[in-house]
Design goal:
This protein is α/β, with parallel strands linked by helices and about 290 residues long.
């Protein structure tokens, strides 16, 4: 019996869990082969004091957390590209020649990045590919870099004139993660009530939460994941060094479960003819060979 295959391409250890843990758990439980590209090792992540020294380096800690989440979620395989983590826009660390953002800004290095994604697509032959939206979720340069590279790789993977280690293969659908607008607006409302500045959020006050809201994209697919929320929370907890759930962890679990019962996705290819939800499954219309 043929098996559906899904490839998710994100930037850091924790992006897979914080962003789409419910979706991944659902599809794995339903027999889908889910693969993950993690472009960086998350080596510039901020680590709590009580976790300092648990591993020889931040990189090893973050990769161990990713391995934990991969076991919980049940990935078929994780592809780690091992680029260095970049900082937020304007950070001096983004000039490091080994970081993902630097590679995305140099034409020859960017081409190599795109071809690495093409190679993965051609090797595993996913029916569906998923990556960040154009703003990279919250504007992180690494998110934007892997978004661009994955989008281009999707378009070029079926090109017979492009030679790589594997023969051409064209996935059938491309989606961007559509952030949960209702949930994010609720969080923004509670933050304003507490007198917080939405332009300077996060542990390092370098996340523009208002810009996140301004760059929300329409959802064309809405997938019910409510039966997999416990598995989602379990995967989030693997990334203890990063808060075990991101900003959403500031909201009680029962309320998150009420507000985030489904996950939305923007369909990029095939291009939708309207901006409304018309799918409840990313594999709707997919021919499974």
């Amino acid at each position: 019996m043929a098996t559906y295959r899904l490839l998710i391409a994100y930037a850091h250890p924790d992006d897979e869990s914080f962003g789409n843990g419910g979706l991944i758990a659902k599809y794995v439980a339903e027999g889908v082969e889910v693969y993950y590209i993690c472009a960086t090792d998350g080596d510039r992540g901020t680590i709590p004091d009580d976790m300092q020294g648990l591993y020889p380096s931040v990189r090893e800690l973050r990769l161990a957390e990713l391995a934990c989440a991969a076991r919980v979620l049940g990935f078929k395989r994780v592809f780690t590209f091992h680029y260095k983590d970049s900082g937020m826009m304007g950070s001096v660390t983004n000039q490091d020649p080994d970081c993902l953002w630097y590679h995305s800004q140099q034409p020859d290095l960017y081409e190599k990045l795109v071809l690495r994604v093409v190679d993965v697509i051609r090797e595993i032959k996913p029916h569906v590919v998923l990556t960040f939206n154009k703003y990279g979720g919250y504007g992180h340069p690494d998110h934007i870099a892997i978004h661009r590279a994955t989008t281009e790789a999707f378009m070029r993977a079926g090109d017979p004139t492009l030679e790589t280690a594997c023969p051409p293969y064209q996935p059938q659908k491309l989606y961007y993660a559509a952030l949960p607008a209702r949930f994010l607006k609720f969080v923004a409302f509670t933050l304003r009530l507490r007198g917080m500045d939405l332009r300077h959020m996060g542990r390092n006050k370098d996340i523009d939460y208002q810009a996140v809201l301004d760059h929300l994209e329409p959802a064309h697919a809405l997938v019910d994941v409510h039966a997999y929320l416990d598995k989602w929370h379990e995967a989030n907890a693997c990334h203890k060094s990063q808060g075990g759930g991101g900003m959403s962890s500031q909201v009680p679990k029962w309320l998150r479960d009420l507000l985030v019962r489904s996950q939305g996705f923007t369909r990029v290819y095939p291009k939708p003819t309207h901006n409304r939800v018309d799918e409840r499954d990313l594999f709707a219309g997919v021919v499974c060979e």
